[in-house]
Amino acid sequence: MSNRQNPDNAIHSSFWQEIPEGDNPFSAAICRCGGYDVYGDLLDKVTWAENLFLLFHGELPSPRQTQCLNGLAVALANPGPRDYSVQAAMAAGAGGSTAASCLMAALAVGAGNFAGAREVYQAITFWEQCKRDLPQWRLHLRKWEDTRATDTGMTDIWPAMEHPPGFAPYGKSCSTPVRQTLDYLAQIQTEGNLYWLQQHRHALEALTRQPLALSGVAAAALTDLGFSSQQGELLYLLLRLPGAAAHSIEQHWRGSRDFPFYREGIHLTNDPGPPAEPQADTP
Amino acid sequence: MKHFFSFYEQQWTTDLGAYFPGERVVLNGKDLFNELQHLDWMGLLMFGITRRMPSKQQVRLFNAIWSLGASYPDPRLWNNRIGTLAGAARSSGALGISAGIAVSEAIVYGNQPVLGAIHLLQEIKQRRDKGETLVSILNEKMSSHPDDARPAKGRNRKIARIPGFGRPVSSRDERIPPLMTLVKELGFAGLPMIQLALEMESVLLDAGHAKMFLNIAGFMAALFCDQGFSAREQYYLWILCFSAGISFCAADAARHPEGSFFPLRCTNIVYEGKPPRKYPQSV
To answer: What global pTM score does this model have?
Structure first.
């Protein structure tokens, strides 16, 4: 809020420029992204994936990068109704909540350390530190395990990771969609982290004792595309919203009765029971 | 072998509580309608989170900190601004207020510095108990390191090195004197953590750090540590503390004309990026 560094109350941007209409200084005639005229030039030329890349990087992607980002977007678009973030959107939809609250619910729940965006953030930091060096992964994982063991309490707003980021703590083996996504993306990015991950998946799974998860593939893809941990976290949140939106509106239409309530699902370990009936007055 | 999830599939075992439709509600082993009627909303919140019955003094302290310390009616404050923008954009009140609460989990103010202040106080207390002096500990903390991240800007922003002291907007925290009057009245002023916090303030000011006055985050952290609340309990207890100020702002903005909150001209966006360019024929 301080004006010490921003006396004109201006907004500064390295990628977005607006030129006003001649008759209205509050309405943009030209919007440029990374120097490209969005409505006058890009509109009929770029795909959604290219535009997304341009917004984050300020440069257009190569065809290979576009293909990779597009593939990742398709793979992440719908985690399905068993995923907690989608369930959150559906619970909102079931009760008839607002559209924005459905997506806010999906974002809030899908932000976490268990299959969520914070897990991708953590996994990208692993890539940044270990790169494509298996001994470094081994060392880093060991250090991470040691830190986790000595964590004594709540030191951050984020709970401590309970499993190695990018891996599935309850998986039996690497799931088919995860392998299919990795195989597809690795064939596009033949020299980066995705390809290395494909080649070393079994070794990493042996180190973590857990199968690779989709969040792990996403982290490798996002690093190959040059996204930082913070950018990757945001993109992962964004790219998983379409499924949450579609399921929430379907549930909105189906209503609350057609959604699990688990009527007998709560097992209360300290139920005092109903209050005692008042004793009838004795004559 | 049975899957780990099969145990949880249709059952949520808890001692928190449950709703028995048409009959009663149990919270922490107590009947809400018969055993918890004496609690006001703040007392119930404290009981629900900590599972301990709060004293009247603790409830009064919490109410005062929320009222005087976290309920400012100023739409320029970052979290309040979300409520205001939502109101100005004619969004719903709940959407603006809940997003504002989420935004309060910030680096320069709100939940992250308070958690940081708790850990700082606990660390300093432990180190002093082992014989280190407050001056040497704080000197070490205040000495700059080349890899120090700054709270206010940069790609790796982190909370301040001495969370709970100093402020981004002004140096002195106007909330401390009125709250300290109440703290003295409640008999909490002489407790160890608040005394440590005040001592730290003196040491920092004496060492020439002229802006390092105790702020509300450090004040809250010290008081609640003195009351025996864990970091995790404190975290959950404050989450809603900004809700009143955000609500005031959302309601106020809804009374103003739509779109009238500090509208920006196109020229208020200062562009610092690539010059205008054409989409290339082949990327």
So the answer is: 0.94
